[in-house]
Amino acid sequence: KVIFPGPAQLPVEEEVSVLQKIAEDNYQPVGFGKSVTIPIDKIRELRKQASYHPYEGKRKVAIVLGADQMKAEAANALLKILEEPPGTMLLILTATNPSSLLPTILSRCQRIRLNHLSRVEIEDALVERKKISSERAKVIAGLANGSFTRALFMAEEQVLDEYRNTAWTLLETALGADSTEKLDLVETIAREKDRAGLEHLLELILLSLRDILLWGEGHQEKITNIDRTDRVRALAEKIDSKEVERLSREVESSLEMISRNVNPELILIGLAEQLHTLE
Predict the structure, then answer these.
(1) 241 is in which domain, residue-wise?
(2) Tell me: the pLDDT tens digits for 102-119?
């Protein structure tokens, strides 16, 4: 059995379709909109099935994808399974941010850390699987931050350019626009991007800030935005390194709030307030 984050009311047909996509390619990104979680009824169903003996073999396997996106009621229901784990079930939880899980859940699990993929591995896989040019694959691999799922998302037609343009526009607007213009831009982004899209955008902003910091410190050869050196240099000349570091911490905080299912619009409004202080 596989459980994954989704909308509160997901039709059975769509759920089956998603499971088929996951089975065919577990790296393929799946997006539903702004509000996704693992509903408590799915965990209750899992708890019920856990009490049954397997029809074949010695064990059943259940996988909870994105377990860190569970709300408190679902997490507490899952905890009841872990407190009295059935000997006939292997329960696997995946989480991007394990710290978002209840400490009582973490203490009852054996943690296995999966390392990020290297740039070369992602670049080679993009060329082989998506048949894109090695030059574009190199750019995407640098921006994917070790995630092949993120790389596949950015490899879609116009997605990479759209998200990067938005990220750079947000940073450049932070320097040159008044507070009203900054807030208008943030509200536009909040309307257009779902939770997963916002996470991708913030990751790109964070990488861009890293590039700005590297450029300012004279490490131009280490930047990831290798095809946008003019924009990196321009902002490196305008923003003080301490401000870049401060803003990076704010973006990291925003990413953490996304993992905790905080409303995306509230996250962006808070980030806009921080951008307002960037002059």
Answers:
(1) 158-276
(2) 999 999 999 998 888 999
